[in-house]
Amino acid sequence: MSQPTLKTPWHVWVVGGLSLLWNAFGCYDFSMTATNNAAYLEPYPQELRDYWLNMPVWVWAIWAIGVFGSLLGSIALLLRRKFAYPLFAASFLAALISMGRSLTDKDAPTMEGQMMMSLVILAIIALLALYARWLSHRDVLR
Which of 21, 37, 57, 128 is the most buried (most CB within 10 A)? Predict the structure, then answer.
């Protein structure tokens, strides 16, 4: 006999949709920075732009894992797939490494509110990971 299909709770669509928008912006930010988009980067001080564009390749790779991992996690969440949790967990770890590196780099320029924004991003990713794990345990994700 086949397993009965659980109806998708309404909150999956709300959380999944909002997280998709949030994480799509993270990917957009990464893409605009990586391609050195002049119009996008214009509001930032030159010192900060120079720092970003001269980061080691491994830092770019970790940043990419963070933002694109979360985007894929949001898509997996909307598709009700259990691999949403490992994607969000990998994204959290990548963000933690990336942000930790920039916060401990004595040569890194700082911006007002940088620490607070980093904490907000980490909190959102952690909550999304925990949410996906909770849904997995409730057999909402397959």
Answer: 128
The pLDDT profile of the chain, 142 residues, written as one tens digit per residue, is: 555 556 899 999 999 999 999 999 999 999 999 999 999 999 999 999 999 999 999 999 999 999 999 999 999 999 999 999 999 999 999 999 998 898 888 888 877 877 899 999 999 999 999 999 999 999 999 9
Exposed, middle or buried: residue 4 (CB in 10 Å: 0-12, 13-18, 19+)?
A: exposed
Domain ranges of the chain: 10-137
State the DSSP string of 34-95: HTT-HHHHTTS-HHHHHHHHTS-HHHHHHHHHHHHHHHHHHHHHHTT-TTHHHHHHHHHHHH
* Lookup: tokens for 22: 């949030």
